[in-house]
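Exercise 3.2. Students should predict the tertiary structure of the chain below and write it as structure tokens, then compare their answer with the key that follows.

Predict this chain's 3D structure.
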Amino acid sequence: MKYALPLAALMASVALASGGAIAADGPLFRHSADFFKFDGTEFVTGATANANPAIADGALFYDRTVLLPSNSNVLYVTLFTTGDTHGGAALWLSCRYSIGAVINLCRPSSPPGPGIDEAPNGWVAVKKLPVPVDGATNCNDGGGGAADCHDNAIAYSWCVQLQSPAPISVRVRLRMATSIPGQQVFIEKGQAYIDSSFINQKARCIRANLPLVRTTGDVIADTVSRQSK
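Answer key:
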């Protein structure tokens, strides 16, 4: 006679076969889901950023405090929006999280110098349209001159390792900046999400395994320190 395997036993057998991942790793919890600038306005700044925030630290455009489950050990901050820039400037974004009075970068650079995108430590360039070398005014959609090409999609996400047990609350702040002081950059019609989860495995918001091991038939991307201009 055949018997149906109870669901609990079935899940246990799958967990054992997969190294315990299903039993150990937790679900994703969404703590905040916000939207902004669907009212006909947009965020704008001509402020730049520096590796030393006391010199220049862009402009704040998002600030939210959330409560976390005690077993969360990874925090996720995700942004979907549109934006544009003027005069060949890059739009830089930075994510900060704070537990109490201590403010931390969601993703500092390592080493902590400017990256290949030329953004300072803790910042990432998400949009840059160059000024044409032939003097043309490509786009000029809104009177911003060369490289003023409007309404480009922007998507970025940060992950952060949390101590165990997790802090009761975490404050998340997002900042925007221009790479060229005085040249304005814009953000409009966005969605921001803050999530957390428990991950028992080693891949808990860590650097990906590099360099990759070449196997038969694989083409591995090369690594360079600076693109030629």
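Discussion points: The chain is about 5% helix and 35% strand. The two ends are 73 Å apart (CA to CA).
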